[in-house]
Amino acid sequence: MAEAYPWQAALWQQLAGRARHAHAYLLHGPQGIGKRALAENLMALLLCQRPAELRACGQCKSCMLLAAGSHPDNYVLEPEEADKPIKVDQVRDLVGFVTQTAQLGGRKVVLIEPVEAMNVNAANALLKSLEEPSGDTVLLLVSHQPSRLLPTIKSRCQQIACPQPKEAESQAWLASALPGCEEQERIELLSLAAGSPLMAVDLQGQGVREHRAQVVDGVKKLLKQQQSPSQLAESWKDVSLLHLFDWFCDWSNLILRYQLTQDEEGLGLADMRKVVQYLAQKSPQGRVLEIQDWILEQRQKVLGKANLNRVLLLEALLASWAMLPGQR
């Protein structure tokens, strides 16, 4: 069974304690807060033949089959490859499963993650199963970005907002999950993960703090005209494009915030505070807004897996960034 997280305790009591379950749940919230684990625990409970104290027993035939990955009444639908869409043919296979009778005589449980990976055709193919699931079937839909879902999908589910842990809860959990990290490193990782502790662990594994240090150093050299946009674009080949656009988007937000508030406490992580403050003081607000709009537009293309020329895109970003300081 998946690990349960302390910040989910109240929601779990509410979900697991129900006498009757909805035919479809949409579990949504930011990535990296444990939604998949919550869904897997609920799936195990719904399939268990001898549940006790709001938990699956772990010992019955159903639990043993689920643990072995061979439960005949359980179906997990996810992209065939990471970051790829869920295809309509995959959903049609799922619909075939939903129409069958449960082989163990109990419920059938379907888990779909992430739901927003379905293209429009795939989502439409799922609608009838969501509206009229066959027999005692429960569908668990997990979404990191519910705003990307068709309204018709959302309206057919009971929507459950999964809680994001408080910072103290996240730090306590990270201290045990990343025992080799200093407290300041954990604080930085959690900030880079937008407060999502599981994402912070992933970022640590990806070496994101080292990548961030490389990018911050490059931005400082760019503004001092010690390196050109093309040199930096080439040197950042190992850095995730989405991370780059997330950071530049965050920095443009911090610049605008400081221009409006002059609040030195709101300058973000220590590595870029002086740069953000300098750019806020030297950059015309209209220019900052323009570059922010452009960054957000490109970030959406990156999220949508558009076929982008990485080097040219980064050169354009850095050339605009280098031109930010100017006459106010």
UniProtKB/TrEMBL annotation:
Gene Ontology molecular functions: 3'-5' exonuclease activity; DNA binding; DNA-directed DNA polymerase activity
Catalysed reactions listed for this entry: DNA(n) + a 2'-deoxyribonucleoside 5'-triphosphate = DNA(n+1) + diphosphate
InterPro entries associated with the record: DNA_pol_HolB (IPR004622), DNA_pol_III_delta_C (IPR015199), DNA_Rep/Repair_Clamp_Loader (IPR050238), P-loop_NTPase (IPR027417)
A single BP term in Gene Ontology: DNA-templated DNA replication
UniProt EC number: 2.7.7.7
Record's GO cellular component terms: DNA polymerase III complex
Keywords, sorted A to Z: DNA replication, DNA-directed DNA polymerase, Nucleotidyltransferase, Transferase
NCBIfam families named in the record: holB, PRK05707.1
UniProt-listed PANTHER family: DNA POLYMERASE III SUBUNIT DELTA, REPLICATION FACTOR C / DNA POLYMERASE III GAMMA-TAU SUBUNIT
Official protein name in the record: DNA polymerase III subunit delta'
